[in-house]
Design a protein that fits this description.
This protein is of the alpha/beta class and 450 residues long. The chain is built from 13 helices and ten strands. The chain has three domains: 117 residues, no CATH class; 149 residues, 2-Layer Sandwich (Alpha-Beta Plaits), CATH 3.30.70; 118 residues, Response regulator (Rossmann fold, 3-Layer(aba) Sandwich). The chain has a five-stranded mixed β-sheet with strand order 2-3-1-4-5, sandwiched between helices. Helix 3 packs antiparallel against helix 4 and helix 11 runs parallel beside helix 12.
Length: 450
């Protein structure tokens, strides 16, 4: 649940507020006769400035504070005037000033409170999925950013990605209302099973994410399996619904939370490929055993600096920008916004490409799974991965590919060209294995897939 927070009041706003309250006081004390005249009363309008400033930052409470401060200054000023015997106040005029001041502050308070409530509602809509009531992807990425930063200080972090099996068939056969009901039910399951210290969110479509702080893979697998059994136990009018899940824990050198999420998505793909309705975990890099390398396709005789590069990104602006940078440097560039079509191209035979430049996070298929599927038919793939939200240097050994580079968004041309040149010139190494799942007997209690 989102809680209401007040904006901090800047120092300059406090200084202006105090100065605006001091102006009428000085005017009345220095020019008592003028201060009691009709035109002199206008100097008290400056005491409304704190009400406007504090209303913006603190809403109703700010206006109440400004009103109290203004009334106190007004009362103290009149007491000082009486004690000094400078003049007898015009009580009718003073009463009118107080009435107008209070009326303006009340109106400002009502208006400010309405605006603050609308702002709070807009923030809630921006961070909450309207269908399931769970946090949305934007909210999840904010939490991922902070949790990933904490992992650098030694705190455990594991991410689980869920994907409802055959969800498209539910929509196609039983209608979108049935699909929405399925999503809401799964959202309720996640809400019930997620610890208060963790966060589960709808990540997009039928995909959900759970961010488990201070949790290892064993805990994540047990949690995901509880979710899997609970959704499977529900009976819908159209039958049973199952879910597949992939889990991955933070490892040194990942550099960005997008790499961690992509590792979990890679494990989720393995769960889908292995028959669905199961939970799969990514193997830590240290536990991986590289498979024997197939013979790599021969390099093109293209002169150095003119090699063929295929850029893959679902964002058309990034796709155009990166392609333009590479073309400017003399490379022969092709563009693709659909990873599935790229996989099909490699499966049909030699695509005539010497380097892939791919985004890590894409809605249809993440960059790690893309390269996994390509290396199943062609070894020695050279890849430069692109990712935003970079917090630390990337040195993770789990990236698939025969020669791997990394460049952070926003893309700088010098960084991109340096990474591309380095990957093209580097000797090929054994690729990280595409099979990222844990053996079935590695975690007792899960049992064989149903």
């Amino acid at each position: 649940m989102l809680t209401r927070t007040s904006r901090p009041v800047p120092l300059r706003a406090l200084v202006i507020s105090l100065a605006s309250l001091g102006v009428p006081v000085l005017a009345v004390l220095a020019l008592p006769g003028w201060g009691q005249e009709d035109q002199g009363v206008l100097i008290w309008l400056t005491s409304l400035i704190p009400a406007f400033l504090l209303a913006y930052y603190r809403g109703l409470r700010g206006v109440a504070l400004a009103l109290a401060g203004g009334m106190a200054v007004l009362a103290v000023t009149q007491v000082i005037v009486l004690l000094l015997g400078q003049a007898s106040p015009d009580w009718a005029l003073l009463l009118g000033v107080v009435a107008v001041y209070v009326a303006i502050c009340i109106a400002l308070a009502v208006f400010s409170e309405v605006l603050h409530r609308e702002r709070q509602a807009a923030e809630a809509l921006a961070l909450v999925d309207g269908l399931t009531g769970l946090p949305n992807r934007r909210h999840a990425e904010v939490i991922l950013e902070s949790q990933f930063a904490a992992s650098a200080r030694g705190r455990k972090l594991t991410v689980v990605l869920f994907d409802l099996d055959h969800f498209k068939q539910v929509n196609d056969r039983h209608g979108h209302e049935a699909g929405d009901s399925t999503l809401r039910s799964f959202g309720d399951v996640l809400r019930r099973t997620t610890r208060r210290m963790d966060l589960s969110a709808r990540f997009g479509g039928e995909e959900f994410i759970s961010i488990l702080g201070d949790a290892d893979v064993a805990h994540a697998l047990a949690f995901a399996d509880r979710v899997r059994h609970e959704i499977k136990s529900l009976v819908f009018p159209w039958g049973q619904v199952t879910v597949s899940a992939g889990a991955a824990s933070y490892q040194e050198g990942m550099g960005s939370h997008e790499v961690l999420v992509a590792a979990a998505d890679r494990a989720l793909y393995d769960a889908k490929r292995s028959g669905r309705d199961r939970v799969t975990a990514a193997v830590p890099v240290a536990a991986e055993r590289p498979a024997p390398e197939r013979a790599a396709a021969p390099r093109s005789p293209a002169p150095r600096g003119t090699e063929a590069v295929l850029v893959i990104d679902d964002d058309p602006d990034v796709l155009r920008l990166v392609s333009k940078m590479l073309r400017t440097a003399g490379y022969r560039v092709e563009e693709a916004d659909d990873p599935e079509l790229v996989v099909q191209r490699f499966h049909r035979g030699d695509p005539g490409v010497e380097l892939l430049v791919t985004d890590i996070m894409m809605p249809k298929m993440n960059g790690l799974s893309l390269v996994d599927r390509i290396t199943s038919v062609r070894a020695g793939v050279r890849v430069v991965y692109m990712s935003g939200h970079l917090q630390r240097d990337v040195s993770w050994a789990g990236f698939p590919g025969g020669a791997v580079g990394f460049v952070a968004k926003p893309i700088e041309m010098a960084d991109l060209l340096a990474s591309v040149r380095d990957v093209l010139d580097r000797p090929l190494a054994p690729s990280a294995p595409s099979q990222s799942q844990v053996p079935q007997d590695a975690y007792r209690g899960l049992g064989p897939p149903n």
